[in-house]
Amino acid sequence: MQPTDHQAGALQRKSARHGAMSRLRGNWATLLLPIADDHSIDFDRLGIEIDALINARVDGVYSNGTAGEFHNQTEAEYDRIQELLADRCTAAGIAFVIGACHPDPSVSCNRIRRAARLAPDAIQVILPDWVPVTDSEAVDFLTMAADAASGIPLVLYNPPHAKRVFDPAELGAVLRRAAPAVQGVKLADGDALWYAAARQHLTNWAIFVPGHHLATGVSEGVAAGAFSNVACLSPRGAQLWTDRMSSDLPTALELERRICVFLDTYILPYRLDGGYSNGALDKLLAAIGNWAPIGTRLRCPYRWIAEAEVDRLRLIARNSIPEMFPG
């Protein structure tokens, strides 16, 4: 995977700002893979989706998270996805993060090396996932990842379903040993005690909380931003909501309450009762928002939610959280 001329120039331009991580904040939209009926990735629709995210002027776009189905694509497909994202975001001046996640640490490091040549603002990684890592093994892996990244910052993704989930104290201890490579962490938040522990142990890193808890994370003085499920529903609406947090946090918190009610009442039951994955839920949200031709289909063998559900839920969403659908 070779960088284009303008990507090579972008690498030089970006190098000066990587240390400050000035762009790793705010509302980040995930790249969802449009899957064709033959189970291939529809790259034409993927390009339309990237353009829609750019036009929404989100704070950043990231690829190959869980909802980006990083676990179910070939290496050639991986390269093509990242090249498309890098080309369009670099040309538009939009920040982007490339996910190099993989359960196999060797494959992950190879993905990191190839991603680094595209000059992202950061590279997201997960810890090796087949055998749970110890603290020292986590530090060793992050050191390996940093070497592969050649100076580009890392964002550690430590979701609730990881084999090893760190509490704030454990995570802070690991990151101090792995510093300065890891400059951001995407994780699930918790109650008031969790936020107190995060303020005590994680203030040196950019913390990304779940999108539907972003206003709470901001109000607690912890969240730098979110790699956001709310942006799956409406990239532009999520951006306006994020911007509101700096000028009218009480109103943003009230909207968060209604977003959570909508998700808990109408979306979460598909996971709790139907057994659908978070990726299926995120694609359902995008179909409800109807901002790009993504579709609800996941790549086999994973099950997706029928599009027949969308019209009913779209009406409910627009009535209960109209601020998410400007214009």
SSE succession:
HEHEHEHEHEHEHEHEHHHHH
**CATH architecture type:** Alpha-Beta Barrel
CATH superfamily: Aldolase class I
**Structural class from helices and strands?**
alpha/beta
Shape: globular
The third-level CATH topology is: TIM Barrel
Helix content: 40-55%
Question: What spatial order of strands do you see in the largest sheet?
Answer: 1-2-3-4-5-6-7-8
How far do the termini sit from each other? 39 Å
Round the Cα radius of gyration to an integer and report it: 19 Å
User: Approximately what portion of the residues adopt beta-strand conformation?
Assistant: 5-15%
Tally of individual helices:
13
Q: What's the number of extended β-strand segments?
A: 8
Characterise this structure.
This protein is an alpha/beta fold and 327 residues long. It has one domain: TIM Barrel. The protein has helices at residues 5-18, 43-55, 75-92, 105-116, 135-149, 168-178, 192-201, 214-219, 230-233, 235-244, 249-272, 278-289, 310-320, and strands spanning 26-30, 60-62, 95-99, 122-125, 154-158, 182-187, 206-208, 223-228. Strands 1-2-3-4-5-6-7-8 form an 8-stranded parallel barrel, surrounded by 5 helices. Helix 6 links the parallel strand 5 and strand 6. Mean pLDDT is 92; it is low at 2-20.
